[in-house]
Write a structure and sequence with these properties.
324 residues, mainly alpha, Farnesyl Diphosphate Synthase, two-stranded antiparallel sheet, 15 helices, 1% strand
């Protein structure tokens, strides 16, 4: 059973409240335009899943420290920066039900805001001598950029195989969740084995998280993004890769042609969605997601039983069963 986020947050409720206050204060700025945009970003913040991974990982290993707050802020700042930049790259006008920064203030300002957030994260780490945390999170941002470029490169020919797909999502999505868990652990313990285990745990969860995101694109339920958006953006997701790999040559050619040349036509997008649904691609991707989740639980259960471990397990269930 998936618990509510409030129940999951219970072991770190005090820490999260303090973090939210600190984070809000760190976003204030003397430049009126920048301060207005920062307040808008804080107002539309998401579920803060990544800071939750940071604090719960710290609690699991030892306990939260001042370094844990730095780790959570660093992860959140750099994550927010990448989202602002992503919206510019994708020409997206909406994020979490709100207008994106580029929709309200145009691309030039959005790029500068993303740069500002990145620099804030770097300064936060340097001012507090958090070199280990900076290295962990910087590696993740590097991997995210590489994953995005690899996806763009492969999308041109739509020739992505499963091994390439997993490499893309490991870099694009899993790297930051892995960094959040790893940074949380590193903020509370010097035990390298524990820190490495939490990085591996986060990577498994990040992959499962992205597969769940892939599945939402084909869901018949009401979700937080338009159905078929990945198809419109020519993204090769796991259900689609499976469907194409198991299609007859003629049908495969037709679907690839639609994605390449007709992905903006609603009827054609529906045709691709139905093709994937009828191919067995959905249960195949679900099985892969649950396999990665199971691997993550195996790592998690090498740690002693405690409230933080229970919450981490429930948080994993939450992100892999979410409806949007």
């Amino acid at each position: 059973m998936v618990l509510s986020l409030n129940s999951i947050k219970a072991p770190i409720e005090t820490e999260l409240k303090t973090f939210e206050l600190r984070f809000r204060e760190s976003m204030q700025n003397k430049v009126a335009l920048l301060d207005k945009i920062m307040r808008y970003i804080v107002k539309r913040k998401g579920k803060q899943v990544r800071p939750m991974f940071v604090f719960l990982s710290a609690k699991l290993c030892e306990d939260t420290t001042d370094s844990t707050y730095h780790a959570a802020s660093l992860v959140e700042l750099l994550h927010t920066a990448t989202l602002v930049h992503d919206d510019v790259v994708d020409d997206s006008l909406e994020r979490r039900g709100f207008f994106s920064i580029n929709a309200l203030w145009k691309n030039k300002i959005a790029v500068l805001v993303g740069d500002y957030l990145l620099s804030q994260g770097l300064l936060l780490a340097l001012e507090h001598d958090e070199f280990r945390l900076l290295k962990i999170v910087s590696r993740a941002v590097k991997a995210m950029s590489e994953g995005e470029l690899l996806q763009i490169e492969k999308a041109r020919r739509l020739d992505i195989k499963e091994d390439i797909y997993y490499e893309i999502i490991r870099q694009k999505t899993a790297s930051l969740i892995a960094a959040a868990c790893c940074a949380g652990a590193a903020s509370s313990t010097n035990d390298e084995q524990k820190i490495k285990a939490m990085h591996q745990f986060g990577e498994k969860i990040g992959i499962a998280f992205q597969i769940r995101d892939d599945l939402l694109d084909f869901s018949e339920e009401e979700i937080g993004k338009p159905k078929g958006i990945d198809i419109k953006e020519k993204k090769m997701t796991l259900p689609l890769i499976y469907a194409l790999n198991h299609a007859e040559k003629k049908q495969r050619g037709r679907i690839i042609n639609i994605i390449k040349n007709k992905s903006t036509e609603p009827k054609k997008v529906v045709e691709v969605i139905n093709f994937v649904r009828n191919s067995g691609g959905i249960p195949y991707a679900q099985e892969a997601m649950y396999r990665y989740r199971s691997d993550a639980f195996e790592i998690l259960h090498t740690f002693p039983d405690c409230p933080a471990r229970d919450s981490l397990q429930q948080l994993v269930n939450f992100v892999t069963e979410r409806k949007k």
